[in-house]
Structures are given as structure tokens and as C-alpha cells.
Specification:
Oligomer: heterodimer
CATH superfamily of chain A: Aldolase class I
Shape of chain B: globular
Strand content of chain B: 35-45%
Strand content of chain A: 15-25%
Order of helices and strands of chain A: EEEHEEHEHEHEHEEEEEHEHEHH
Number of helices of chain A: 9
Radius of gyration of chain A: 18 Å
Largest sheet of chain B: 7 strands, antiparallel
CATH topology of the largest domain in chain B: Rossmann fold
Number of helices of chain B: 4
Distance between the termini of chain B: 29 Å
Strand order of the largest sheet of chain B: 4-3-7-1-2-6-5
Distance between the termini of chain A: 16 Å
Structural class of chain B: mainly beta
CATH architecture of the largest domain in chain B: 3-Layer(aba) Sandwich
Radius of gyration of chain B: 17 Å
CATH superfamily of the largest domain in chain B: Nucleotide-binding domain of ferredoxin-NADP reductase (FNR) module
Chain lengths: 300, 241
């Protein structure tokens, strides 16, 4: 066993670093730059039942130590993901992948999972009940424990693969939502999705983002994410995937010390396409500095 | 795409707000119409800038100070290095030029046309260049285009230099147009009978196709301005989508 090996819902990972959904496409742009098989796994672009154009431009705004986005779940729909995107992904990536699933009704979620069941190389489902940039569905399932549980228990009926539920930080008590998901049959929890935010252009006096609001990510949200990972890891017994502003090997260690079994990296991929590769490369030296022999020991 | 560390070798002010930077260390040649994405220390997102010229490992960028990020970039001093993603986007299609290409640039949309003009002149083509600016003090690169042997025409919106009006006021007949500039200018060019293509601008997250931050619907479906673009043929663009 290597020093970086971890396990997520019974599936071994060479290391805990996972590009977060929406920041890595279906992997192949990055595979032009380096061998993406160095990753633990990757969570591919959020997939819905129908193709989605997403929101009008502009979708992006810079913030201090971060960014806002309101892409709005642009994706080609589950059938095109299965027939076009995943074959391209699997031509360059040879490990089980995490399928990120979004929907606008309970039936949407279950139908997407049911269709993705045709793909044996999917290792985990990451059920996104936390997208802040779509109207109806998305985050509305992630802000109410009963609604969250209804998505989880319905998805539970159509797959035996691990279900990881991706939670929104835009709630009063994220631990209540996490516990409801666990009780409904979730195998893991990932958090946090982006924090709702806004910027106004001083010259035009209008919001910078056409959708008016967007999701805040990047180093600015790291302490918020870390606190929530800490709380949720102590409230549930299923594994927790930590994400939100992770941009260095030290951030990965901090997330794991807070209780994360694995760690997703999001906005950092957009600033440097090599971010995940570099973080993985920097982990052993960072572990040496803090007397960590293996990442598994952080889980005990 | 390639991540490169480039060194600033010189810079020169072109107007009060526009500065030309010459960087060295490019290891892969770029095409006219492609762009680079520069990291700015202290800022979360890179700044996408079109390639003004590229030869012999040197990269010329012309940057308008628009906010604090571009202030920082143009404050770089010779000898300083920059973390740059190079070779981004598709670039102009030189094979469509025909026998008399027309280049139309507005404001800070002018720079990518310089590299294009140089390459088209290198193919022995007569090149007409039409440059539009708001006012005389904002005019730049007129002499540079003339030095390439281009038929160079300048229009200013207030009439303080060249012909009064927009780029369309000085546009000759031609075989094909290549454009970059503000949206109203591009829309006006789209209405011409002349076929052509144009470079679009967008707020970008990554600049290399990962985040979908700059995607919009085009005639053929959803397109990423950073990846399938920034150059699109005029019939691809759905202005009111």
C-alpha cells in the first residue's frame, strides 16, 4: 500500500484527489496536458436527463480569492454523455469514475441514474442536490431534509453502487440535511457546493452575472467548507468527501484532518490546468513536514 | 495549449490606456486569432489576451487597462516573468481569405488583426485594414499596418482623426472579412454581403474549455468561445440567442 492510498465507499483510490464536477469537463481537455490517470478519480460534468444550454453570458465574475459562476448545468444530456462523452473519457482514463447527476424532479434523478447504470466503469454516483444556478430543482432539494431524503431513497431503488450526496452550504443546518441523506440510504456525503453570491458592475450598476447571482468558489470558501466538513463528519457515519477552495496539498491534509475520506479540487483547476497533478505530486513532501506516514492514519 | 513562463523584454505605451508588451520564451508557435491566458499575481482568474504577434519565440500583446488586473499586467517591468497559458482557441482561417481580404478592427479588437495581416501579406495578398476608434488620442498601430504594406484606413467616431464614423464608413469591397471589436461593429459587419469571420470576447473562467463559463448557442449548437472560438464565421453567430 502506498502512502497516498485511501478508500471511498469500499472502492480503493490511489490518492484522495478528485477534480470536482464542473471544473474538469469530461477530462479529455486535461488529458492533452498530462496523464490524468494520476488522479484518484474524477467527478464528471453534472449530467441531467435532457440536454441543457445553461444560463446566458456573462456566467463568470472574479472575486477576492475566488470566483462566481452561474453556468447553469450546461450539459448534453445523459444519452449524449453515455454515447459521446464517456467513450472519449474512457479512452484517456482507466479508473472508475464518479458520475455527477442533477435533476429537476425526483424522477429526473432516478432516470439519469437508471440510464447511467449501463456504464460499468461508473464507480460512484454523486447526486447533486445543491446547484445554486438553476431554477426549480437543483438546490431546492438540498435545502430541505425531507426533499433531500426523497431523492436519495428514490435513487437507492435504482442502483446498488455507492450514492454520494453533494450538499449545499446555503442552509441553516447542513448536518440535518446530511443525517437525512444517511438515513435515506446514502453511502457518502460530499460538501460543499458553492455559496450563493453576487457582484455588481459599478459602471453599469447591474449585476456582473446575467443570472444576477452565482456560486462562490475558490480559496475564499475554504474555511467555510472545512468547518462544514468537520461538523458533518461528526454527525454521520458514512464517508465524507471534502471540497471548497482546496488548492494545495496542505489544504488536502487539512480537509482530511477535518474528517474527509477524499478531497475534491474545483476552482483551482481553472486557474492552473495542472492543479490536481501538482497537488498529488506535492502531497508526500507535505506529509513529511507534518509527520504523516500514510493518509490512512488521518482517518483513524 | 501549453503552460509557459515568459519573460517581459520590453514595453511601450501606445495610448494613455493601451500598452504593448513583448514577452520572450514561447516554445510553440501560435496562430493569428488565438489567445493567451495570463496569471496575475494576487488575482483569482487569469486574463485572456489576444495574440498581437508571435514569431521567433516572441509574443506581442497589446493590453488596454480595463481594471485592476490589466493595471497589474501593464505595470510589469522588463525582466519580470509571467505564467501564461499559450496557444488557446482556434484562430482565424487564412485559407478563406480569397484574393482581396478586408480586416476590420475596433478599439482593443485591433491587435489580433496585426498578426493576421502579417501572415496574409506573407502570402502575397493585398490586405485592406480598417481601424475604428472613438477619438484621435486612442488611435494605435496605424503605422505598423502601413509598414506591412496594408491599405490602411482609420475611422474615429468623433471625426477627430481619419474619416468620421465607424469602421463600416471606410470599409472597401473585398473577398472576405476578418474582424475583431465591439459587438455593434461585429453585428454591422454581419449584415454585409461579404462573407467573413470574427473573434468574440467573453468573461472566461478557465480559457481552455473546462468550465463552460463562456459557452453560448451558435447555429451549430452550444459552443465554447474559448475552445471552439474565439473566431466564428458570421453565419454561425446567433446575435439574439
Amino acid at each position: 500500500m502506498g502512502r497516498l492510498n485511501v478508500e471511498l465507499c469500499g472502492i480503493p483510490l490511489d490518492n484522495p484527489v478528485i477534480p470536482a464536477s464542473g471544473t474538469f469537463g469530461f477530462g479529455y481537455e486535461f488529458a492533452e496536458l498530462y496523464d490524468i490517470n494520476c488522479l484518484g478519480t474524477l467527478s464528471f460534468k453534472g449530467t441531467t436527463l435532457q440536454p441543457r444550454d445553461g444560463n446566458p453570458l456573462p456566467r463568470i465574475a472574479e472575486t477576492p480569492a475566488g470566483m462566481l459562476n452561474a453556468v447553469g448545468l450546461q450539459n448534453p444530456g445523459v444519452d449524449a454523455v453515455l454515447s459521446e462523452e464517456l467513450p472519449r473519457l474512457f479512452s484517456v482514463f482507466h479508473k472508475p469514475v464518479m458520475a455527477n447527476v442533477s435533476g429537476f424532479s425526483v424522477e429526473d434523478y432516478t432516470e439519469v441514474v437508471r440510464r447511467l447504470e449501463a456504464e460499468p466503469r461508473i464507480g460512484w454516483y454523486e447526486i447533486n442536490i445543491s446547484c445554486p444556478n438553476v431554477h426549480g430543482g437543483g438546490m431546492s432539494f438540498g435545502t430541505d431534509p425531507h426533499a433531500a431524503a426523497s431523492v436519495v431513497s428514490a435513487a437507492r431503488k435504482v442502483t446498488k453502487k455507492p450514492l454520494i450526496i453533494k450538499l449545499s452550504p446555503n442552509v441553516t443546518s447542513i448536518t440535518d440535511i446530511a443525517k437525512a441523506c444517511e438515513d435515506a440510504g446514502a453511502d457518502g456525503i460530499s460538501l460543499i457546493n458553492t455559496l450563493l453570491g453576487m457582484r455588481i458592475d459599478l459602471a453599469t450598476r447591474r449585476p456582473v452575472i446575467a443570472n444576477r447571482t452565482g456560486g462562490l468558489s475558490g480559496p475564499a470558501v475554504f474555511p467555510v467548507a472545512l468547518r462544514m466538513v468537520w461538523d458533518v463528519a461528526r454527525a454521520v457515519s458514512v464517508p465524507v468527501v471534502g471540497l471548497g477552495g482546496v488548492s494545495s496539498a496542505e489544504d488536502v491534509l487539512e480537509m482530511m484532518m477535518a474528517g474527509a475520506a477524499a478531497v475534491e479540487v474545483g476552482a483551482a483547476n481553472l486557474v492552473s490546468p495542472y492543479a490536481c497533478r501538482d497537488i498529488i505530486g506535492a502531497l508526500p513532501a507535505a506529509m513529511d513536514r507534518y509527520g504523516i506516514r500514510t493518509l490512512k492514519e488521518l482517518r483513524q | 495549449m501549453k503552460q509557459e513562463t515568459l519573460t517581459l523584454v520590453s514595453k511601450r505605451a501606445l495610448t494613455e490606456r493601451v500598452t504593448e508588451l513583448v514577452l520572450e520564451g514561447v516554445t510553440e508557435p501560435m496562430k493569428p486569432g488565438q489567445f493567451v491566458n495570463l496569471a496575475v499575481p494576487g488575482f483569482s482568474l487569469r486574463r485572456p489576451i489576444s495574440v498581437c504577434d508571435c514569431r521567433g519565440g516572441q509574443l506581442n500583446l497589446v493590453i488596454r487597462r480595463q481594471g485592476r488586473g490589466t493595471e497589474e499586467l501593464t505595470a510589469m517591468e522588463p525582466g519580470q516573468t509571467a505564467d501564461v497559458l499559450t496557444g488557446l482557441g482556434n484562430g482565424y482561417d487564412l485559407t478563406r481569405a480569397g484574393e482581396a481580404p478586408v480586416l476590420a478592427g475596433g478599439g482593443v479588437g485591433v491587435p489580433p488583426l496585426y498578426y493576421l495581416a502579417r501572415m496574409l501579406r506573407g502570402r502575397g495578398l493585398p490586405v485592406a485594414v480598417c481601424l475604428g476608434f472613438n477619438t484621435a488620442s486612442e488611435v494605435f498601430y496605424e503605422e505598423e499596418f502601413r509598414a506591412l504594406g496594408c491599405d490602411t484606413r482609420v475611422a474615429t467616431a468623433d471625426g477627430s482623426y481619419g474619416t468620421k464614423g465607424f469602421v463600416t464608413a471606410v470599409l472597401p469591397e473585398g473577398s472576405y472579412f476578418y474582424a475583431c471589436g465591439p459587438v455593434p461593429m461585429l453585428r454591422a459587419l454581419t449584415k454585409l454581403a461579404m462573407p467573413g469571420e470574427m473573434s468574440l470576447e467573453a468573461r472566461m473562467g478557465c480559457g481552455f474549455g473546462a468550465c463552460m463559463g463562456c459557452s453560448q448557442r451558435m447555429a451549430g449548437g452550444m459552443r465554447r468561445i474559448c475552445r471552439e472560438g474565439p473566431v466564428f464565421r458570421k453565419e454561425e453567430i446567433l446575435w439574439d440567442a
